């Protein structure tokens, strides 16, 4: 089983959720460092072969844009342009990057591209699951997700960034169900 993990904004492939997936699912997890530019990130992701795509927060938006055969999104930000607009300028990375970069730039052009993508919507998802924390302090997209993808989500007790316990108890069992499902 090859899993593509897509990290959140200002994060990296080294984010601890990638390791949690490796440990709990005993799977190969590909977790690249992604640029904030939407088209650059998607171009990089489209060239990665995986059986399952898991996206966290901003990474959930990218995962949905990929339209992979099997996708799980955890606390996805379905409208990242608002968060990006609030952080225009230089932003520090919150986890180490393979190339050693410590910051990135959010420009007006990047924000506009996300606004366009949000209007375009998402491609068809064959097998999809949205996992939403009941105490998410950052992103609140469960109602929008449910309107776009009815019957494809569940709520778990926790915050925006899932802990190991939350991953083990709620998210990974749901991922196992998705792995063993045949596409609709």
Summarize the structure.
The chain is of the alpha/beta class. It has helices at 16-25, 38-46, 58-66, 80-86, 108-120, 142-148, 164-180; strands at residues 2-6, 28-30, 52-56, 70-74, 89-92, 103-106, 127-133, 153-156.
Describe this structure in words.
The chain has 184 residues and is an alpha/beta fold. The chain has a single domain (2-180), classed as Rossmann fold. Helix content is 39%, strand content 20%. The chain has seven helices and eight strands. A six-stranded parallel β-sheet has the order 2-1-3-4-7-8, with helices on both faces. Helix 1 crosses helix 7. The mean pLDDT is 95.
Task: Give descriptors for this structure.
184 residues, alpha/beta, Rossmann fold, six-stranded parallel β-sheet, 8 strands, globular
Spans with pLDDT under 50 lasting ≥5 residues? none
CATH topology: Rossmann fold
CATH architecture descriptor: 3-Layer(aba) Sandwich
Shape: globular
Distance between the termini: 20 Å
The largest sheet has its strands arranged as 2-1-3-4-7-8
Kindly provide the radius of gyration, computed on alpha-carbon positions and rounded to a whole number of angstroms.
15 Å
For the largest beta-sheet, the strand count, sense and barrel status come to:
6 strands, parallel
Number of domains: 1
Number of beta strands: 8
How confident is the prediction overall: mean pLDDT? Answer: 95
Number of continuous helical runs: 7
């Amino acid at each position: 089983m090859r899993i593509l993990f897509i990290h959140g904004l200002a994060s990296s492939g080294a984010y601890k959720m990638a390791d949690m997936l490796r440990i709990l699912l005993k799977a190969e997890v590909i977790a690249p460092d992604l640029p904030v530019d939407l088209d650059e990130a998607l171009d990089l992701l489209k060239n990665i072969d995986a059986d399952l795509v898991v996206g966290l927060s901003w990474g959930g938006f990218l995962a949905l844009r990929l339209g992979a055969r099997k996708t799980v999104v955890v606390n996805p930000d379905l409208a990242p342009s608002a968060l990006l607009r609030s952080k225009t300028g230089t932003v520090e990375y919150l986890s180490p990057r393979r190339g050693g970069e410590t910051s990135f730039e959010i420009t007006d052009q990047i924000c506009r591209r996300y606004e366009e993508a949000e209007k375009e919507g998402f491609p068809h998802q064959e097998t999809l699951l949205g996992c939403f924390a009941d105490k998410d302090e950052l992103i609140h997209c469960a109602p929008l997700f449910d309107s776009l993808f009815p019957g494809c989500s569940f709520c778990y007790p926790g915050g925006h960034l899932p802990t190991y316990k939350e991953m083990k108890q709620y998210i990974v069992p749901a991922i196992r169900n998705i792995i063993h499902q045949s596409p609709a």
